Amino acid sequence: MWKRPVFIFLALLAGWQIFGQQSDREAYIEKYIDIAISVMDRAGGPASIKLAQGLLESGAGTSTLAKRANNHFGMKCGARWEGKTFYREDDDYDENGKLIKSCFRVYRNADASFVAHSEFLRDPNKNFRYGFLFRLNPRDYKAWARGLKKAGYATSPTYATNLINIIERYQLYRYDRMLPGTIEDTGPPEDLALGIQRVNDVKLVLAVANETPADIALRTGVSISRILKYNERINDPNQALRKNERVYLQRKRSSYRGQKKFHFVRAGETMFSIAQRYGLRLDKLYRKNRMEEGSEPATGSQLKIRGWTRVKKAPALRSEVIPEGDPESPELEWEEEVEPETPGFEIDFNEPVIEIEEEVEAGGAELYHEVIKGETLFGLARRYGTTVEEIKTLNRLDSNIISVGQRLRVK
Length: 411
What we know:
Elements lengths: L2 H41 L3 H12 L5 H6 L15 E9 L5 E7 L4 H13 L4 H4 L10 H10 L8 H11 L13 E3 L3 H5 L2 E4 L2 E5 L6 H8 L3 H7 L15 E3 L13 E3 L6 H8 L3 H7 L13 E3 L49 E6 L5 E6 L6 H8 L3 H8 L11 E3 L2
Antiparallel strand pairs: 1-2, 3-4, 4-5, 5-6, 7-8, 9-10, 10-11
């Protein structure tokens, strides 16, 4: 007569275990989605794959390595690792066939582990093994999962299937279209079904190539008059839009609601592209920075994006040429100071990019870059359309290690 209560107890226990596992996974996704998207933008490869690998290999952050070493991908020390280490038994044996403790890397935080894992796959020395992955469609998570298995990344025969199951169960593929640092969430399920995302708590969609505002109005249920009203550069219902062009479905904000106070202007950025990036009204961005509408900020200048007060002096404009080291160069004053950096390993992909061009005797031009926090040779090579080996040759580097403030020739 005790069989039924025991069976019920075991069933309840199993149910609670499954519920707990799902809860851990959902918490893990929420915690690390931002770094997964940033790494996707920086190094390539789907954010969905990175998250699924982290979930699988760290047990949703509950493994010993994840908890004690911030190591979510089982990264071993290797010959060039100079950081802290953590030893535990894994799959290394001595010459007598006896299992010995393996050396694993210790990271300052989990974000560093995500970055290091992508650098591992991007390492030119491993290009023969993993290089083909980065020629796959970056949104084809199935091809990536099978490619990792084909490359011998994992020994488990079900590794690819496990990744695909995790991605589809938690709909991680939706993150493969997102941009780093700005798209905060997808909102309720009905928004996800319509392709609606959010920036600065404002709804938007990414246009399909040659889609028109009228098409977007039809698929989202937002009137065409509102779409024309909310988007400064959209004036015609039948205007052909570029692929992934942001189309806002609500009025953009006057101020950024995220943590960043300032944006450092990168080469090629305009006031409009910056306003689009942060979900800000273009006229408010001009006003906040005491700039005349139609003017453009110089590369490397600092724009205020958060707060209601205006800067005391406008930033340098693109039309103003200020020679480097000119003692007459004006210094900008700000009503608010930038928050000091907190200790620890943090990555901000919106830090300033300092680019300096110097004429050489032969009449050509050398392009230099000053390294900022979180940058790697792989990211610089991708940004400047060159290769890691070329940058290393130009700068006589023996390794891929670079440091903050280091001045590198990239062309």
